[in-house]
Amino acid sequence: MLTISTVNVNGLRAAARKGYAQWLAGTGADVVCLQEVRAEPDQIPGEVREPAGWHALYAPAAARGRAGVAVLTRREPERVQVGFGVTEFTDSGRYLEVDLPGLTVASLYLPSGEVGTERQEEKERFMAAFLPYLVSLRERAAAAGREVLVCGDWNIAHREADLKNWKANRKSSGFLPEERAWLDRVFGEAGYADVVRRLHPGQEGPYSWWSYRGRAFDNDAGWRIDYHVATGPLAERAVKAYVERPASHAERWSDHAPVTAVFDV
C-alpha cells in the first residue's frame, strides 16, 4: 500500500507550533505534499525543515512570505523539478515535482484569485499554461510506464457538492463557471481523475477548507478544494481517501485539513 497526504499548512512555522509537527510524527503516509509553506527553508526550524525519517524538498516563492510548496518522502526521490517550464511561475512557489519508482508526485498551489483583480488574471494565466503541461506530463509518464499524482490546493470547487454554500458563491473566484469548466478539461481531455470524488460519489464534500471567520468549521460550511488528481490506472488502484478533519475548532493547525489517499500498488 502507498499512502499519500496533502495539506495547505497556511504557514509552516505557525502550523508547526499549533500541531503540524505532532501530526507529521504520527502519520503513516509515505509521501506528504505541503502548500502555502510561506517561509524560506533557512527560516524554518531545523527539526521542522528536515524532520527525522523524511527527505524534504522545498520550492519557496521569490516573493518572500507568500506561497511555497514542499514534498516530503520516506524514500529519496530519483528526480526533483521546480516549476513546469513557464518562466512566470518557475519561482512562484506553486509547483514541485518529484519522481519515485514508477510514480511522479507533485505538490501544487494554484493561485486563489479574486474576481476583477490582477490576482484573478494571474490565476487564469496559470490555468492556461498548466493544462497543456498536465497533458504532456501524462503522456511522458505513460511512455515511461509511470503514473502521475498531482496533489494540492487547486483553489477550485468543481461541483455543487464540493462547497456548502454554492448558491452564494456562483460569482466568486473558486466556483466560477470558467474555472469549473477548466477542471472538467483536467478530468476529461487531460486524462486525469479526481481520486476522492471517485471513492465518494454523490456525497456532499468531504470538505477540506473552512474559513476562520464565523462558525464555518463548526457548521461544516466548507469547500473541497484540496485534490488528489491521478492518472487513470493509478486512480483505479485507490482503495481509500479521506479528510483528516480535526475533532474541534481548537485542534486546528491550519484552515485546511490533510487529505489522504491510499493506493494498492
From TrEMBL:
Principal EC category: hydrolase
Record keyword Magnesium present: yes
GO molecular function: double-stranded DNA 3'-5' DNA exonuclease activity
InterPro entries: AP_endonuc_1 (IPR004808), Endo/exonu/phosph_ase_sf (IPR036691), Endo/exonuclease/phosphatase (IPR005135), ExoIII-like (IPR037493)
Domain of life: Bacteria
Classification via CDD domains: Nape_like_AP-endo
Needed co-factor(s): Mg(2+)
EC number: 3.1.11.2
KW Thylakoid (keyword) present: no
Residues of the Endonuclease/exonuclease/phosphatase domain: 6-256
Keywords assigned: Hydrolase, Magnesium, Metal-binding
Annotated TM spans: none
SUPFAM superfamilies: DNase I-like
NCBIfam families: exoDNase_III, xth
Family listed: Belongs to the DNA repair enzymes AP/ExoA family.
Stated name of the protein: Exodeoxyribonuclease III
Organism name: Streptomyces desertarenae
